[in-house]
Amino acid sequence: MSPVSTSAQDTAADFLFRCISCGHLSDSAGQDFRCADCSDLLEITYPAWTSASRDARNLKSTWAQRLLSRSATDLSGVWRFRELLPAVEDEQRIVTLREGNTPLYALPQCARITGVPCLFAKHQGMNPTGSFKDTGMTVAATFAGRAGFQWVACASTGNTSASMAAYAARGGLRSLVLVPEGKISWSKLSQALDYGAITCQLRTDFDGCLRLLQELVKRAPVYQLNSINPFRLEGQKTVALELLEQLDWHVPDHIIVPGGNLGNSSAIGKALLEMRDLGLIAHLPRLSVIQAEGANALVRTIREKSGKTLVSMQPETRATAIRIGNPASWKKAVHVLEATGGACEQVSELEIAQAKAEIGAEGIGCEPASAVTLAGLKKLLKQGFVKPEDTVVLLLTGNLLKDPDFTIDFHRGDMFKGDAGESGALKALRHPPIVLDATLDAVMRTLEKAQ
Ligand code: F0G
Prior knowledge:
Elements: E1 6-7, E2 16-19, E3 25-26, E4 28-29, E5 42-45, H1 56-65, H2 72-75, E6 104-106, H3 108-114, E7 119-123, H4 133-146, E8 151-155, H5 159-171, E9 174-180, H6 186-194, E10 198-202, H7 206-219, E11 222-224, H8 230-236, H9 238-246, E12 254-258, H10 263-277, E13 286-292, H11 297-305, H12 330-340, E14 344-347, H13 349-360, H14 368-382, E15 392-396, H15 404-411, H16 424-428, H17 440-450
Parallel strand pairs: 7-15, 8-9, 8-11, 9-10, 12-13, 12-15, 13-14
Antiparallel strand pairs: 1-4, 2-3, 2-5, 6-7
Helix pairs in contact: 4-5, 4-8, 5-6, 8-10, 9-10, 10-12, 13-14
C-alpha cells in the first residue's frame, strides 16, 4: 500500500480546505484531515462561489427540473444539489445508491401530544442503508476513489460502518470497520458483514475506536470515512437543502437533531449558513442538538465551559448510535448552535423510550438515537424556547429496524423493570406480543379485550 494524499489540486477543484480554528487555507489535506499548522479540523470552502455563479432562483429551478431526469446523478438526492458540493469532473465516477430523497412526514399524533400543530419529521432512516450516513458517504466514497485510495476505514457505533461498507462495495474499494465490541446492534453490524467489510470488534468504546483509527491513517494509506472527513459533511448538508425544498423554501422555526460525534449538526448548520449567504433562504431556522443524559458531552461543554473547551466523558446510553463521550466535531457544532441561535438539551432513557414509541405509534419507525429529537422538543417547549405556534422539524436519523432489541425490550416491559419512574403513559404505549393457544376463541377474546 503506497501513501496517497487527498488533494484539491490534481484537477480543477473548486474548493479549498479551511481550518476551523486558525482559518489556514490549503488545497490539500493529510489523511487525518487536520490543519498542518494547528491540528484542528478542516472544513471545505468554495472561494469562487458568488451570488451570480450560484443564483438562488436558478439553483432552485435547476434542482426542481432534475426531479424529472433519469440520470443516476440526478436520481441521487445528494448529487441533485451538486452546485453546492465539491465538483466531480467525471460523473461516471460518482458512487451512488440513490441516497437522499427521504420523506418529510407530518406527525399528527405527536403534534397533539406536544401541542405543536406544525410538527414534521424528516426521515433519514429511509436512506439505502437505513441512516443519514449515506448522504455523506456518497460524496466521501467518490472522493476516496478520485484520490486513488484502495482502502477506506471508519470507527463506528454501527450506522457509519454499514453505510461505508455499502458505498465501498459499490465503488470497488476495500473497507475496514472498527466497532466497539458488544456495544452496537447486530442489525447494523450484519450490514457491514454482508457488504464485505473487514470488521474488527475492538475491546473499547467508540471513542477508543476513533482514536485508534487516527493512528492507523498516519501509518497506512487508508482513507478515513468518519465525519472528521469534510467530504462526508458536504454530502450531509444536502438534507437541509432537500428539507427546505420540501417546505417550498419556507424556513421552519426549529430544526432539531440528535448529537453524537456532532458531524450531522455541523453539516446541517453549514448548509443553513451557506443557503442564507447565497439567498436561498431569507433567514436562519434555529438548529438545536439533543443528546442522551448519559452521553452529554456537548451539553456539559456548553453549560460548564461556555462552549470553549470540551468536557469529555465515559458515555452510557441505550441509544447506542450516540453513545459517544468525546465528540470530534464539537467545535463545529458549538459554532452552528451560536450562529443559528439553537439550544442544546439532554434527555433521559425513559424520555427516549417514550418518544420512540410515540413516533412508532404514527406508523413511522425510528431508532432510539433519532427519538431524542421528540423528547428534546418536549423539554424545549417547557422551557419556552419552542412556542406551540412554531413550525418544527425533527431529524429522524436512523430506521427502526436498525435496533430491534431496543424496541422489543421496551414493548415486552424488559427495559425499565422495577423502575419507579415508569409512568402510566409509558405503559400504555407498550404492545407486547401475546402467546395464545391456536384457537379462534382465544384470538376473539384478545381482540375484544383490545377494543
Ligand atoms: N443518529 C444516528 C442513527 C446515528 O447513527 C448517529 C451517529 C447519530 C444520530 C449522531 O450523529 O455523530 O453526526 O452527531 N452514528 C455514528 C456511527 C457515530 O458510527 O454510525 P453525529
